[in-house]
C-alpha cells in the first residue's frame, strides 16, 4: 500500500478508531445528547427516561387522573426527540419507564403510589406497565408519534423482564395501540437472572435485541443490595455466577442472530469489556466519559483476537 506523505510540518490527524463491536453510549437527559453524540458513539444503548419523567414532578398516574395525558406525552416527546435528533441514522434504544414507587412518593400524585417494603423488587419496570396499561399507553403514544414522524432509529427496551410472556404481552399491547410491531425494534434488558436463564425462549419469542443490565443482574444473582454499603464489598461484577449467566446468554443470542449488548456500569469497565468481546458480545453501551477508553479497549481486543486466529491458522 502507498501511504500519502504528509506535507512537512503538517499536523497528522489521528485516524479514527474503527471497531467491529458497536460502541454505544448511555444517556439520561436531553441536555446530555450533544455531548453523547460528540463521542462519535454508534448509537444510544440505553436512554433512561426516568429523569425526564421524575423531572416533571407529577406521577404518570396523576396525568391520567387529571386527564392531562397530552401534557405528559408532549414533554416526553420533546425530550426523547432531542436525543434522536443527535443520533441520526444510529440506533437509540429507549427504555420504557423503570422508576421504583418510592421515587414518585414526594410528587404530585405520589400519595397514590403503593407503599412497598422492597420497591426494587416490586412494582417497577415492565411489571408496572403491564398492570397499568393506561400508563404504558401514554408512553407508547410518545414512541408511536416519533415513529410516525419517521424516526426509525428508535428502538424500545423493556426493563425488569423476567419471563418471555411479559415481552409478548407488552408487544401485543403495543400492536393493539396501532404500532406495526414487526417494523420496529423491541428488545429487553437482561437484568433478572430468570431472563438470562430463559434467553433462548426470549429469542424464540422474537426479541430484536438483548442488553445486560448488570447493575441489577449482579444484585439479583448475588442477593447483594446495590445500594447497601454494608455488603458493597461483595457486589462483584466478575463473580463467576454472573459471568456464567452472561457468557451463556451471549452464546444463545449469537445462535439466534439477536444483537447482544450491555448497558450496566460494567460496560464502562475496560477489563469487563475485553472479557465480553472475547465471549462474543457485539455491542457495548458505556457512560459518556468512558467511550474513548472503551473504544480503544474494543479495538485492541479485536486486533488481538484476529492475530490469535491467524496465528492458530498458520500454526
Ligand atoms: C442496570 O440494571 O444495569 C441498568 C442499566 O438499569 P438501572 O441501573 O437503571 O437499574
Ligand atoms: Mg436496572
Topology:
Layout: E1 22-27, H1 33-38, E2 44-47, H2 50-54, H3 60-65, H4 69-86, E3 92-95, H5 125-131, H6 133-148, E4 154-158, H7 164-176, E5 185-190, H8 193-197, H9 199-204, E6 209-212, H10 214-222, H11 240-256, E7 259-262, H12 270-278, E8 283-286, H13 291-314
Parallel strand pairs: 1-2, 1-8, 2-3, 3-4, 4-5, 5-6, 6-7
Bound molecules: phosphoenolpyruvate (PEP) and magnesium ion.
Tally of separate helices: 13
Beta-strand content: 5-15%
Helix content: 40-55%
Strand order across the largest sheet: 7-6-5-4-3-2-1-8
Mean pLDDT: 96
- Give me the count of strands: 8
The largest sheet, given as strand count, sense and whether it forms a barrel, is: 8 strands, parallel
Can you tell me the overall shape? Answer: globular
Q: N-to-C SSE series? A: EHEHHHEHHEHEHHEHHEHEH
Family: Belongs to the PEP-utilizing enzyme family.
Protein name: Phosphoenolpyruvate synthase
Domain PEP-utilising enzyme C-terminal: 19-301
Function: Catalyzes the phosphorylation of pyruvate to phosphoenolpyruvate.
Describe the structure concisely for a colleague.
The protein has 315 residues and is of the alpha/beta class. The protein has 13 helices and 8 strands. The chain is globular and about 70 Å long.
Amino acid at each position: 500500500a502507498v501511504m500519502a506523505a504528509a506535507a512537512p510540518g503538517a499536523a497528522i490527524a489521528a485516524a479514527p478508531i474503527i471497531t467491529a463491536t458497536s460502541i454505544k453510549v448511555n444517556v439520561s437527559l436531553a441536555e446530555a445528547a450533544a455531548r453523547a453524540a460528540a463521542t462519535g458513539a454508534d448509537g444510544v444503548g440505553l436512554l433512561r427516561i426516568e429523569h425526564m419523567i421524575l423531572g416533571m414532578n407529577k406521577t404518570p398516574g396523576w396525568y391520567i387522573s387529571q386527564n392531562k395525558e397530552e401534557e405528559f406525552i408532549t414533554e416526553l416527546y420533546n425530550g426523547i426527540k432531542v436525543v434522536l435528533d443527535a443520533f441520526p441514522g444510529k440506533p437509540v434504544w429507549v427504555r420504557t419507564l423503570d422508576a421504583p414507587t418510592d421515587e414518585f412518593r414526594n410528587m404530585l400524585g405520589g400519595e397514590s403510589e403503593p407503599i412497598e417494603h422492597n420497591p426494587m423488587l416490586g412494582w417497577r419496570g415492565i411489571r408496572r406497565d403491564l398492570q397499568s396499561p393506561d400508563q404504558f399507553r401514554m408512553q407508547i403514544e410518545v414512541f408511536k408519534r416519533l415513529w410516525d414522524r419517521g424516526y426509525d432509529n428508535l428502538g424500545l427496551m423493556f426493563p425488569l423482564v423476567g419471563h418471555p410472556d411479559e415481552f409478548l404481552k407488552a408487544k401485543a399491547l403495543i400492536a393493539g395501540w396501532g404500532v406495526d410491531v414487526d417494523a420496529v425494534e423491541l428488545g429487553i434488558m437482561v437484568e433478572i437472572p430468570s431472563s438470562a436463564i430463559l434467553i433462548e425462549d426470549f429469542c424464540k419469542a422474537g426479541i430484536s435485541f438483548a442488553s445486560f443490565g448488570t447493575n441489577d443482574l449482579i444484585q439479583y444473582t448475588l442477593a447483594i443490595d446495590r445500594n447497601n454499603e454494608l455488603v458493597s464489598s461483595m457486589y462483584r461484577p466478575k463473580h463467576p455466577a454472573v459471568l456464567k449467566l452472561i457468557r451463556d446468554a451471549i452464546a444463545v443470542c449469537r445462535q439466534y442472530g439477536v444483537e447482544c449488548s450491555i448497558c450496566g456500569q460494567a460496560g464502562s469497565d475496560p477489563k469487563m469489556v475485553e472479557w465480553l468481546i472475547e465471549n462474543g458480545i457485539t455491542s457495548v453501551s458505556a457512560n459518556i466519559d468512558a467511550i474513548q477508553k472503551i473504544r480503544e479497549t474494543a479495538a485492541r481486543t479485536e486486533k488481538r483476537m484476529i492475530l490469535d486466529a491467524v496465528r492458530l491458522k498458520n500454526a
